[in-house]
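Input structure tokens:
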């Protein structure tokens, strides 16, 4: 009875139940025709390049060069989906062809509406009449033809909008004085600070009043970053309210699936979305190329939105491929062989499906990118089939053998494992399942891991933070505003480490502490804290720690006692 709570509520409210709904307990699932399902999907399932547009110097996938007709391709693809256990067409797929030729066996599908992107949201004024017209026009053009289709799961309102909060603050502040968005920001500043003198305690302004303010830089050691975060929440509330209203004007039944975050989010943006979406979504490649992921990103996405989560893109690529893809640009996990690729994909799916709030994951994409790359330079072995239409057998097997499950997934162990041979090289080498330290606060943006050697304790921090340096005077983050990690072991003298914008990190505290950092938007900090006496297996170590993003805008905290394990 509890498991079908959301479906029962839908019945009570008179909502038609032939449309896909969400079941949240005992674990999240989509529900259709009375049956729950976990959405395993594939993005960009389309016919590829038209035969007369194939570039022999840069060949790509062309279904109509491989099949006699669109119908033949649809039926073959549906057979592949069935063999692989795939039940959903992800974003940017040829939904209309499957509707036309797929019959009763056609997959569930999703649509990416790009509502805000038609007027470059959130960078163009979200409070302008032009933005309202663009969002409404995009919804009106796309939704009515599909609004009665029970095979449609729902709508992604956009894809990878730029919720870069620091930069958005400056962008709106520098808009023309009569711009509605700038006026809304000035209203927020008046509300938060009251007087311009109070505003100047956090900011170095250009102008001598709110009326003449045209730009401002963060004052070192102030609390201006909290204002930046508040403004991100105001913008997000406006966006999510507008897109929800637009969708619901033309469709009262299908799910609103969020706007597919680009592997980054700002917590106030998540909080703002909560009242306007049915499912939260994010594009999310593995944090490490073995297919493993940090804990905080998906956990906090769910905790702050209060919604189940669908992963709208995931991927893994290999240098060994039949399409000639070089995998040479930046930003995607790459391994050497197809076996490693399949193993990493299996590990990824096992991880995300074990999280009870995740109700689906969609692979990007059906076929490999062209041999010499797309128009934007991306040249990755993304496909489950190569450019010749042949499946990668090991990948197909990984999908076919995947079964969503809910094993016992501890929040964290009560022990610290032995450190790997080179703890500073990469957190990938750590036994992160055992080394994970459970946070004491919810909605954090960092993971903490602990391991040990006889000489001392190693702490590994994996933190997310976006910083636009141009928001600071001279485009330089002062030391006092850099990301900060503080830790105390067994009640001893605290260690304070400023990192991210300074390299090497600046360490304050006991002698012998060593800290090294790496990465950008997702950064790693590894800290060695020496012990005065040799550590031994079975000892209990107490740890108290917190990490802060730049300007101390977001905090993650830990306080625990760990047993040193073998």
């Amino acid at each position: 009875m509890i498991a079908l709570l959301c479906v029962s509520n839908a019945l009570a409210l008179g909502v038609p139940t032939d449309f896909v709904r969400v079941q949240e307990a005992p674990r999240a699932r989509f529900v259709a025709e009375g049956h729950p399902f976990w959405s395993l999907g594939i993005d960009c399932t389309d016919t590829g390049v038209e035969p007369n547009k194939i570039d022999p110097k840069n060949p790509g996938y062309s279904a109509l060069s491989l099949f006699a007709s669109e119908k033949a391709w649809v039926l073959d693809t549906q057979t592949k989906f069935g063999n692989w256990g795939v039940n959903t067409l992800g974003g940017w797929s040829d939904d209309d062809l499957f509707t036309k030729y797929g019959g009763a066996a056609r997959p569930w599908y999703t649509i990416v509406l790009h509502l805000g992107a038609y007027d470059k949201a959130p960078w163009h004024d979200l409070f302008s009449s032009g933005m309202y017209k663009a969002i409404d026009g995009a919804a009106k053009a796309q939704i009515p033809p599909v609004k009665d289709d029970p095979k449609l799961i729902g709508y992604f309102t956009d894809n990878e909008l730029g919720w870069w909060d620091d930069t958005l603050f400056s962008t709106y502040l520098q808009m023309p004085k009569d711009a509605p968005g700038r006026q809304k920001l000035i209203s927020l500043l008046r509300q938060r600070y009251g007087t311009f003198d109070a505003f100047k305690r956090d900011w170095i302004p250009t102008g001598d009043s709110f009326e003449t303010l045209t730009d401002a830089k963060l004052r070192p050691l102030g609390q201006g970053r909290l204002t930046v975060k508040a403004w991100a929440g105001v913008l997000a509330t406006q966006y999510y309210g507008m897109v929800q209203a637009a969708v619901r004007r033309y469709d009262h039944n299908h799910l609103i699936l969020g706007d597919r975050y680009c592997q980054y989010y700002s917590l106030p943006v998540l909080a703002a979305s909560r009242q306007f979406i049915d499912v939260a979504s994010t594009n999310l490649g593995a944090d490490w190329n073995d297919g493993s992921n940090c804990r905080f990103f998906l956990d906090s996405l769910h905790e702050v939105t209060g919604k189940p989560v669908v992963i709208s893109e995931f991927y893994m690529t290999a240098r060994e491929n039949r399409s000639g893809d070089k995998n040479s640009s930046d930003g995607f996990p790459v391994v050497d062989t197809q076996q490693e690729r399949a193993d990493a994909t299996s590990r990824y799916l096992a991880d995300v499906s074990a999280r009870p709030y995740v109700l689906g994951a969609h692979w990007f994409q059906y076929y490999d990118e062209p041999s010499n790359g797309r128009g934007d330079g991306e040249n990755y072995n993304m496909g489950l089939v190569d450019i010749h239409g042949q499946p990668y057998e090991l990948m197909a097997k990984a999908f076919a053998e995947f079964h969503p499950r809910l094993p016992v997934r501890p929040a964290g162990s009560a022990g610290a494992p032995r450190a790997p041979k080179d703890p500073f090289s990469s957190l990938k080498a750590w036994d992160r399942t055992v080394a994970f330290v459970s946070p004491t606060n919810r909605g954090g943006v960092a993971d903490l891991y602990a391991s040990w050697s006889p000489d001392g304790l190693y702490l590994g921090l994996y933190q997310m933070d976006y910083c636009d340096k141009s928001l600071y005077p001279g485009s330089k983050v002062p030391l006092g505003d850099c990301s900060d990690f503080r830790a105390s072991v067994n009640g001893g003298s605290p260690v304070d480490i400023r990192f991210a914008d300074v390299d090497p990190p600046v360490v304050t505290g006991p002698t012998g502490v060593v800290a090294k950092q790496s990465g950008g938007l997702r950064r790693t900090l590894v800290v060695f804290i020496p012990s005065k006496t040799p550590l031994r297996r079975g000892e209990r170590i107490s740890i108290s720690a917190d990490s802060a993003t730049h300007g101390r805008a977001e905090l993650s905290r830990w306080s625990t006692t760990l047993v040193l394990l073998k």
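The CA atoms of residues 118 and 253 lie 24 Å apart. Confidence is low (pLDDT under 50) at residues 1-16.
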